[in-house]
Amino acid sequence: MRVASSPDVKIHEETKGRSDASPSQLSISKAAVQAAHNLATGASDSTQLMSDAADEPAPAGESRAKVMLPIAAVTARQVLDSDEEQELLSDGQPRTEGSSDSSGDKTAKSNRSAKKRGRKRLSVCETMPVSPSSALQIIINNPGKLESFYDVDQAKRLGKGSFGTVHKASAKSTGAIRAVKYIALERMKEKINVLKKEIEIMKAVDHPNIIMLYEIFEDPKHVLLVMELCTGGTLLNRVRMYGRLCEEQTAIAMQQILRAVYYLHSNRIAHRDLKAENVLLSSDESIRQTLLKVSDFGLSCYFKPNQIFTDKVGTFTHMSPEVLRRKYTSSCDVWACGVILYNLMSGGIPFGTEEEIKAVRIPLGKQWCDASQEVVGFLKKLLSRPAHRPPAKLALQDPFFQKHLPKPEMPTLRFGLLDDLRTFRSQNKLKRSSLTTIASMLAEEHVQAARDMFISMDTDGDGLLCVAEVEKRLRKQREQGILEKDVTRREVERIFRDFDSSLAGSSKDFTYTEFLAATFNRKACLTDAVVQEAFKILDKNNDGSIDLDELSSGRTLGHIPIEELQQILEDMDQNGDKQIDLQEFKEMLWNTDLTRANTTASLKTLTASEALALCANEGTNNAST
Ligand SMILES: Nc1ncnc2c1ncn2[C@@H]1O[C@H](COP(=O)(O)OP(=O)(O)O)[C@@H](O)[C@H]1O
Ligand SMILES: [Ca+2]
Ligand SMILES: [Ca+2]
Ligand SMILES: [Ca+2]
Ligand SMILES: [Mg+2]
Q1: The most confident of 54-68, 452-466, 601-615, by mean pLDDT
Q2: CATH code at 126-228
Q3: Burial degree of 91 (CB within 10 A; 0-12, 13-18, 19+)
Q4: Nearest partner of 249 among 370, 356, 406, 371, judged by Cα
Q5: Stretch 163-182: mean pLDDT, rounded?
Q6: Relative to the alpha carbon of 538, which ligand is closest?
Q7: Which ligand is nearest to the CA of 584?
Q8: Is residue 273 among the annotated active site residues?
Q9: Which of 65, 357, 436, 542 could link 517 by a cystine bridge, Cβ 3.0 to 4.6 Å?
Q10: Average pLDDT value for residue range 496-508
């Protein structure tokens, strides 16, 4: 057990395989409760758990029960995890140690036995399934050295977490700016499975309000996560800067956080550590102008329908009553959103002790006097017993948002963009992955318009663009006189058909990164440097060409049927040497012909209106620009 001196108390108590909480576990909540109590009562004998507490004066003039705790109060973080440490040896066979071992013993024993058998201990990533990033469609584990690809600004630390630090870095090839999270393996020790879960989940998510993981490196001492950079700091810092946010800013922030939660829950992921400190701001512009990104998936996990969690994890101040009782579902994230809402509106947090949380009495002190009926009503819904608490999807439809969100901007959707989407769906996996990879390398100014378009059309916020959403937007533009002619539902549906081998023309919603990849401005963005970089990622052995072995190793695009790979190679190989060289690769990227579509009956004939639309938009190849 380790108590971090970080100002952020994350608790992870597992009951799996155990009947009772150990004394050490109990002492955590006691310590947290004590820290909260000290803060609420103004006690100054700060413990390690409340290292930041002294910076934050408790609001004066409120009764004990109504004191709003500064958020840093109870935040030293603790991770107690009894996930069974799996020792994986280079023969690839997992071996689970008996859970009765103490973890220290276990690790030492595994190392010893691995040595005895003369086998190399595998790196963290080598013991994980090789699956492509769902957003980027490629394997993002980089076996090379981080320093060969990125210049890391060691002097500038963006933040510090329980297991290491986060630094700013720039990609050598494209200059793209990133954040690198250094996770010290030495400090993770038997928590390696927690780290693996964090990586797996980050690899699986693709949403404009969730931090994106671009690449994973490993050195003997660290796992290095290359992530999307947020230069605007944490939402918590923003609140501290202003004391509290107005209702409009609160509505903007809460909508984005709940959209992320809705997306996660739809994908059966519970975050379990939502708090303003784990929500980052994309830039230092105002909340109205920047994007919020949910981050820190260190305590997240997948769940099955109706699954009940029993492990007590999260940050104490944001834990719901049912988490404390160790019988809860992903709805705990919605409760945490309630605590965040309270935090944004007042600058404090509502609950400091276990009793207060369990009693679900929300302290609405004088800070709340001038709050609107809607925000108070919404707060009460989020901070209610599980049976009354709305799921994220429903919370997003709350009158609070209707009343307090500014009118959304509506960038014009052009036919050219629809055409880009359809073209993308007619292309082979290699081209799609290359374009997606390239989209991930682009500078902010090149993706901004497409991103705004995606967000404005994804009206339910689930991170997917569906036929109905596009149709609705077209209809609206037609009503506003921006579109001169109707586009029928069938025509919209046509755009959504996916000619990927496994889908054979069936309809599929557009994901966020797919949308960016399909619509970025080819002319402005397909520079030699970027194309070469994308090529290098595929040319694993760096011999100047991509061949079948490289593609079929599973280390590039994941596992794709060999026939499909052969077909891809054949399509792109112009000189017949069964390899793709840089020139052929460039041509593939530039070629916007509907190569596959030409041979696909369903796309062969454009309707008259589509043909008209295409003609009308010639020259405006990219609608997002
Ligand atoms: N992508 C990012 N961009 C900018 N800063 C970041 C990023 N990710 C993390 N940070 C900073 O590092 C801190 C710790 O990162 P986090 O992922 O929350 O680690 P931990 O799981 O240890 O809390 C954050 O609070 C934030 O200040
Ligand atoms: Ca949607
Ligand atoms: Ca090669
Ligand atoms: Ca060739
Ligand atoms: Mg964190």
Answers
A1: 452-466
A2: 3.30.200.20
A3: exposed
A4: 406
A5: 91
A6: 3
A7: 4
A8: yes
A9: 436
A10: 80
Contacts of 155 (CB under 8 A, 6+ apart): none
The ligand minimizing its distance to the Cα of 158 is 1
Q: What are phi and psi of 84, to 5 degrees?
A: -70, 125
Helix (H, G, I), strand (E, B) or coil at 529: helix
Q: In the chain, what's the furthest Cα-to-Cα distance? A: 81
Q: Residue 160: which H helix or E strand, with range?
A: strand 150-161
Q: How far away, in angstroms, is 174 Cα from ligand 5 center?
A: 29
Q: How many residues does this entry show for the chain?
A: 625
Q: Is the minimum distance from the CB of 166 to ligand 1 under 6 angstroms?
A: yes
Name the pLDDT band for 443 (thresholds 50, 70, 90).
confident
pLDDT at position 119 is 59
pLDDT tens for 213-248 read 999 999 999 999 999 999 999 999 999 999 999 999
Domain span(s) for CATH 1.10.510.10 in the chain: 236-404
- Does residue 513 have its Cβ closer than 6 Å to ligand 1? no
Residue 186: its pLDDT value, please?
87
Ligand 1, residues 280, 292, 315, 318: which to mutate, most atoms within 8 A of Cβ? 280
What letters, b where the CB count within 10 A reaches 16 and e where it falls short, cover 515-534? bbbbbbbbeebbeeebbbbb
Where along the chain do the CATH 1.10.238.10 domains lie?
417-624
List 8, 52, 83, 273, catalytic entry = 273
Among protein residues, the one with the nearest Cα to ligand 1's atom 20 is 161
Backbone CA torsion sign across 605, 609, 610, 614: positive
* Model pLDDT, residue 172: 86
For residues 604 and 606, what is the distance between their CA atoms, to the nearest angstrom? 7
Asked whether 133 and 140 are in contact (CB, 8 A), the reply is yes
Q: Which fold has domain 236-404?
A: Transferase(Phosphotransferase); domain 1 (1.10.510)
Tens-place pLDDT, residues 525-567? 999 988 998 998 889 889 999 999 988 887 788 888 888 889 8
Q: What percent of the chain has pLDDT over 70?
A: 75
Taking the centre of ligand 2 as the mean of its atom positions, its distance from the CA of residue 458, in whole angstroms, is 4
CB 334 within 8 A of CB 38: no
pLDDT of residue 9: 57
How much is the average pLDDT of 340-352? 97
Q: What is the pTM of this model?
A: 0.80
Minimum CA distance residue for ligand 1 atom 12: 159
Tokens 């990219």 locate to 622
- Work out the pLDDT band at 117, boundaries 50, 70, 90: low
498 Cα: distance to centroid of ligand 3 (angstroms): 29
Q: Which ranges in the chain are annotated with CATH 3.30.200.20? A: 126-228
Report CA-CA distances (Å) from 561 to 29, 362, 432, 557, 576.
51, 56, 16, 11, 21
155 backbone dihedrals φ, ψ, rounded to 5°: -70, -30
Q: pLDDT class for 415, splitting at 50, 70, 90?
A: confident
Q: So what CATH class is 417-624? A: mainly alpha
Taking CA atoms, 102 is separated from 81, 108, 109, 114, 116, in Å, by 12, 10, 11, 18, 21
